[in-house]
């Protein structure tokens, strides 16, 4: 079986698992969105644990948090890049100029530049987490609340068979 078919099967399985959760739409959407936004943070391999923990802490569905963390785990490099792009927009700096200034061996310049790059990343991360989490929550809540049965029927009839 090819890698693409394996990934497609895993995606279908996770989607069916998410749609079959026996919980309120609010809890499922909250858990899924909180589990997904953890991927904006550099977690160093603990992302899935943090997804479940954050979903439980905020009284969302922990299984939905796990599914949300797993479904968007592949996109973390894109999310990190988006953090820096949004952060540079919010905290403007000429990064090329700053890195060239650090070429002389002054340690304080290195630390200042590193701290500023960290501020850029953190600002972008926080904004992305709030915006992406809110939009994802609203979309998942609406889809589950309105179309759960239709989506399950479609997934079973079209994808599983």
TrEMBL record:
Keyword Magnesium listed: no
Instruction: Give the UniProt keywords, A-Z.
Output: Membrane, Transmembrane, Transmembrane helix
InterPro entries in UniProt: DUF2062
Supply the Pfam families for this chain: DUF2062 (PF09835)
Transmembrane segments annotated in the record for this chain: 28-50, 62-82, 120-144
Q: Which residues form the DUF2062 domain?
A: 9-149
- Protein name as it appears in the record: DUF2062 domain-containing protein
